[in-house]
Amino acid sequence: KQGFERGDITILVRTNREGALLAQELLKEGIKPMTEESLHLGRHPGPLAVVSLMRWLLRPDDHRQGATILQCAVALREGAIKLIENNTIESDVTLESLDEASCLDKYVNIIEKEPRKEGGNKRSYGSFKTEKMLKDLFPDLDAVARSSEPLVGFVGHCCMSLGITQFYPAYAEGMMELAREISGSDESGLHGFLRQWDGKGKDRSVVTGESDDAVSIMTVHKAKGLAFKVTIVILTAKDFTKFRGVIPVKLDDESEMPVSAAMLGNYDMRDTYVEDQRVAEVNRVILDQVNVAYVAFTRAIERLDIILELESDDFDRDEFKTVGELIVKSLEVISDGKPVLEGGDLTMNQGVALVDAKPHDNIIEMQNILTGESVKHLVTIPQDEISNAVHDGLNARELGTQVHSALEKIKCIDDWESVKTNLSTGLKMGVKDRDEVVKRVEGVLALDDATRFFRKGIHVEAERDFVNTEGKVVRPDRIVREGGVWHVIDYKSSESGNKKHVRQVEDYVSMLEEIEGQEVKGWIIYTDPIKLVPVL
Description:
The protein has 3 domains: about 40-205, no CATH class; about 225-335, no CATH class; about 395-535, Lambda Exonuclease, Chain A, CATH 3.90.320. About 40% of the residues lie in helices and about 20% in strands. It is built from 18 helices and 18 strands. Strand 16 (about 485-490), helix 18 and strand 17 (about 520-525) form a beta-alpha-beta unit. Helix 2 runs antiparallel to helix 3 and helix 7 runs antiparallel to helix 9. The longest helix has 23 residues, at about 65-85.
C-alpha cells in the first residue's frame, strides 16, 4: 500500500537466535526470509541426519547415532506434513507423523546385567536397532551399499532417500555443494567429509540471493555501517540494572579476604564494599544496550518501525530498567507527557546509505530455492557428540590434545581402566591413534617420580579455575597435595617452547603459594617423549 516491496524491508535483531526464531515464524506465514541463520546447515535435522548416518556407517556400535537419526526423522516428517498441508509443496504421497516414543520402544533393547560384586546394583545397557529402523522408516535408503560410491553420489542418495531433496532442497543442495568441495580436495570419502564437517562445515550457511519477495533479517552488529529503505527494529526486554555471569573483582585489605581477587556475580557484589565495581559493570551493560539501540535506529532511509517488548505498560517511570522503558520515557518527555504506547509515525528524516553490504563468508550462494523451514524444532546434539568423528592420522597437536584429555579424567591410578574403556568405545580417533594415546598415558602413569601424583587417597584438583593478581582466569592441569606440600603439574605435548612452559608453571606456583601459604612445587610432564621436569 505504501509502495514498498518485501525486499525493501530489513528486520534488525540483537542475537542470531532471535533471527532464526523470527525466520521460522515468517515462513509459517508464507513470507520468505533472507538470513544466514535460517539456513544454517549445522542446525537443521536434514544435514544432521546425513552426518549421523555417516558416523553410524563408520561405527555401527555407536547407538547414539541411531537415536539422533530418529530425532531428525521425526522433525523432518513433521515439517514435510506441514508443508503439504499449507500447499507449499505438492506431493502425491500421504505422510503420517512419527511417534518418537513408540519408535524408541520398537528399536531399543534394554539389557540388565547382574552386579559384579555381591550387594551391588544391577546395570542396564541399551542397544539401538539402527539398521532395522532405517529399513522401516526409509525403505529406499541403501546406505551401506552406496557408501563405497563417490562422496557426492552417496550424499545425494541419502538426501533423496531421507526426503531432504523433496521437502528441503536448499539443505540438500548445501550438503551436495559441501560434498563436491571435499571431493575435489586431498581428503575425501566419509572420513574427509566428517573432518570438514566437524571443522567449519557445520557452520556453513546457505543464503538466498536478494529478491523483491524476501525480507532480510540481520543482527544489529552486522548492520553497522549499512542502511536500509525500511527498517524494523525488535528490542526485547533485557534488564540493564544487573549484569549476567561473573566478573573478576579486585579485593583490597578492607575485604579481609585471603585472596586479592575473585570471580563474583551481580548479587554477590550488591550492597557490599565492592558495589562501585558492580555499578561500573552495570554502566557498561547500559552503554552497550543503548549503543545497540542507537545503531539500529539510525539504519533506516525512508521508514523506521520499532517494536518494543515491555514487561508492563505501567512501569515505574522513575526507575526504568530496560532500553524499551527508557525509550518510552524519553518519548513521553519530548511529547510533553502525552501517551506514546499507542504508536504512530515517528520515522526519522531520510538518511543516506553509508556503505554497501559486506560479502558473506563461509556460505553457499543460491537463487530461487525452497527452504522448507516449517519444521517446528531443530535437533540439538551435545557438543561432545558433534565432534565424534573417526579421523585417520591425527597430527602431533591433535594427539597431544587427546592425551591431555585422557589424563585430566584420571584422579588416581584406579580410574585409568574406565578411561581406557571409554577411549576404546569413543569415536574421536582411529585405532592406531587410540593405541598411541593409550601408550603415552600409560607411560606417564608409570613414569618414575610421577606415580606419586596418581596415588589413591591423595588430594587432587584437576582443571580448576583460578583468578591471578591481574584478574585473568588460569587453569593448571593438575594440583596435588601430598604430605603438606602442594604440587602443580602441567601436561605438555613436546619440549618446543620450553621457556614459556616454565614461566607458566612458575606463575601457577606463585599464585598457589599466595592462596595456601604453604610450600608449592611445580612440575611439567611432557608426553612426547615422556619426561618429568621439575620447575621449582
